[in-house]
Design goal:
The chain has about 250 residues and is α+β, with helices and mostly antiparallel strands. It contains 6 helices and 9 strands.
């Protein structure tokens, strides 16, 4: 066995042999295939800036997170189970924070091609990990919901720069119990994964609701953010530092 294969086998042996439970958040840029590569690069940098600022604002730190998984025009975020990061924080704090920062960014950006609109999904479930990242049916479900036609259509029709879809589990365990306003979630999505049908509920934030932007400060763009630590790799300073990412994981194509 060569050195690389030995290192991979060692890393895999250090991970749990079974699945682990994670909250799942993913975001995706609208219309990325219509942008030039330089514009995509700038949008990617801004997307990570906004995401990391939003996570920090609601006290979700690197201690709570797996390494972010880069999806080219999006990001997959896996959050370890912590009592101080209940799923309610994702719905009533993280998503409003990200929406408010998007609105702020879009009002300041000059070039129309740099306007940014995002689809987001919140799900939770068992995931598997190896040295290359994470995979599993729960991630497949989240990404299928995120990439579904009804969610893309909802964003095209929305004044808000972000729309959210939540899984059936998130809706039944959190939304339907009144932790957030369930009247604003619509059952628009049905996807099939592993021969099972999964429903999704779509939420479109009101960009004119002052409660959604309260406490959001202004700033200049692009913003400076902290990098997530990568074991064994020195943290080099960068003017536009981006959280550490891994490549595409299996099961999230």
């Amino acid at each position: 066995m060569n050195t690389r294969a030995t290192a991979v086998a060692f890393l895999d042996s250090q991970r749990p042999t079974g699945p682990v439970y994670r909250s799942i958040v993913a975001i995706d840029l609208e219309g990325s295939t219509m942008r030039t590569s330089p514009v995509k690069g700038e949008l990617r940098r801004t997307m990570y800036d906004l995401l990391w600022r939003s996570l920090e604002a609601v006290a979700i730190t690197s201690d709570h997170l797996e390494q972010l998984t880069d999806r080219g025009d999006g990001v997959l975020v896996l959050i370890r189970p912590h009592d101080d990061v209940p799923k309610t924080i994702l719905l009533d704090r993280l998503i409003p924070q990200l929406t408010a920062l998007l609105i702020e960014y879009n009002t300041k950006v000059i070039h129309p091609a740099l306007q940014m609109r995002l689809r987001a999904v919140v799900h939770a479930g068992e995931v598997h990990g190896d040295s290359r990242g994470f995979y599993g049916e729960a991630i497949d479900v989240a990404i299928r919901l995120l990439d579904s036609t009804p969610v893309k259509r909802a964003l095209k029709q929305a004044a808000s720069p972000l729309v959210l879809v939540v899984s059936e589990g998130i809706y039944s365990e959190i939304v339907s119990h009144g932790y957030v306003d369930g009247d604003t979630y619509r059952p628009l999505v049905r996807v099939r994964v592993a021969n099972k049908q999964h429903r999704g509920w779509v939420y479109v934030p009101d960009p004119g609701d002052p409660s959604r932007t309260a406490g959001i400060g202004t700033g200049s763009w692009p913003m400076r953010v902290r990098r997530l630590p990568r074991p064994g790799i020195a943290d080099e300073p960068s003017e536009h530092a981006v959280p550490a990412v891994t490549g595409l994981s299996a099961g999230i194509g």
